[in-house]
Amino acid sequence: MNDVLLITYKGTAAGQRILLTTTYKITVVPVPTDATVFVNAAIEAVRAGVGGGDLIETKYRACLPVEYELDSIRGQIIAPNRRVYSETLRGVPGTHADGMETANLAGVITLRTAFAGRNQVGNKHIGPIPSAGAVMVLGELTGAYKTLLGTLATALMAQLVPVGIAAVARPVIYHPDGAVPPNTDWVESAIIGETVRVMRRRTVRVGE
Prior knowledge:
There is one protein chain. This protein is α+β, with helices and mostly antiparallel strands. It has one domain. Helices cover about 15% and strands about 40% of the residues. The protein is built from three helices and twelve strands. The chain has helices spanning about 35-45, 55-60, 145-155, and strands at about 5-15, 15-30, 70-80, 85-95, 105-110, 120-125, 135, 140, 170-175, 185, 190, 195-200. The strands form three sheets. It has a six-stranded antiparallel β-sheet. Strands 5, 6, 11 and 12 form a four-stranded antiparallel β-sheet that branches. The protein has a two-stranded antiparallel sheet with strand order 7-8. Strand 9 (about 170-175) and strand 10 form a beta hairpin. The N and C termini lie far apart (about 50 Å).
C-alpha cells in the first residue's frame, strides 16, 4: 500500500531508444501479495495482445508510425523501497497510417495535479510522430492527431487494475525526496500541446 509503481514502455525508431514512463501509487492491494506477482499483473493490465487488459498500449501505438516498434514493457516498484523489475517482450509496431521522416518530432501531453508549480506537471513527449499533413500543418498538430493524443491522455489518467488481482493503482506525479510514505500528488487533468515539439537530443549530429 502506497508504494510507487513505475511502468516504462521501451521502444525503438530509426535506431534510437524511445521511452515513455508513467508512475502510479498503489491504493488498494490484497494482503499478502507478492511484489513480483503484482508488477507482472500490472504489466498485463496495460499491454495489448491475448490476456492483456490493453489500458495503454493500443492508444499509445495509435500515435506512432509503423517505423516505431514497442520492444517491451517494464514494471518496477521504485518507492519507498526499490525492487527488481519485471519485463514483458512485445515486438509490435506503431499503427498510425502515416510514416515518419525524422525521429526528433513529438506531440506533448502534460499531466497535471490539482496544484500549481513546475513539480506538479509531467510532460509526456509522444514520438516520433508521423510527418504527414494528417498529423501536422505548419508546425501545429491537426485536430485529428490531437484527438489521438487526447485518447492516450485519458488512458494515462485512468486507474490501473492489475489483471487477476483485486488491487488498484492510481496515476501520480512522484516527488523522489525520500519521504516515507512516498511523496506524490494525484494526476487530475491533462493538456494536449498545440504545436509540434523538437526533441533536440534526437536530432542527428547535434553539437557539430
